[in-house]
Amino acid sequence: MNIVRIEQFFPRVRTRLVKITTDNDLVGWGETTLEGKPKSTVAAVEELAEYLIGKDPLHIERHWQQNYRSAFFRGGPVLLTALSGIDQALWDIAGKHYGVPVYQLLGGPVRDRVRVYAHWGIADMTDAGLERARERLERLQASGYTAFKSGPGGAWRGHEPPAVIDAFVRRAYLMREWVGPEVELAFDLHGKMTPALAIEICHELKGMRPLFVEEPVPQENVAALRQVAERVAVPIATGERLLTRWGFREVCEQQAAAYLQPDVSHVGGITELFSPANEDI
């Protein structure tokens, strides 16, 4: 069995998909969407395809090592996103070839259910804004969601005046008032804050006991992330923009976060996310 065709599809403006077809008509799909750079992975997939055409799709680990380790320039979000989507498609083909779900190839399920959260928040405190927020909350709760994640809203800088901070905190506590103590709330700060501001925000949110605060400072600054984690009682989360096992190594070694959030479409695909051969870390 060999790879004969690699195609790319763009169903939405920011969405990129890759389709790999074999000479016995097995098809695998993966996602190569790169937030903010939707066109950048297209060329990377084309370059990786030059190596993959004619290869056995079941040699997944070999292809990952060849495309990552043998490259003069390793890593980076463009290459890793392209490689992640291709890797997903190869695992999809493997599952179809062996007639089992991919999770069975990885050792079987660990759990039967996974809890998920929805994105919901109060954008503004006007009557219209509160009405929209209430309506969306009711729809999500009717669908069974018991956890929500929100951001601070607006284009935050490294530091903001007290009025901006206080407005966000008021919205956060109103969210808690609306959903009650049985529902969990998390907040994503998008890596925009200085450690000092992030620590202040986390202390302000402590009373409403959030599930976690995500990326309070730039994710690549592990020392700053640890500085925040050591000074607040709120669990810190990070990882959606970290790449490969080595991107997480320092976070783990410094115990800079309570939750790790690797993205299978950026971190290196299924191979890198779930590989048992992580002796390098």
Provide structural commentary:
The strands form two sheets. A six-stranded parallel β-sheet has the order 4-5-6-7-8-9, covered by helices on one side. The longest helix has 22 residues, at 77-98. The two termini are 33 Å apart. It is built from ten helices and nine strands. It has helices at 40-52, 60-69, 77-98, 102-105, 127-142, 162-179, 195-205, 222-231, 244-253, 269-274, and strands at residues 3-12, 15-22, 27-31, 118-119, 147-150, 184-188, 213-214, 236-238, 259-260. The chain has two domains: 3-105, Enolase-like, domain 1, CATH 3.30.390; 118-238, Alpha-Beta Barrel (TIM Barrel). Helices cover 43% and strands 15% of the residues. Helix 2 (60-69) runs antiparallel to helix 3 (77-98). The protein is of the alpha/beta class.
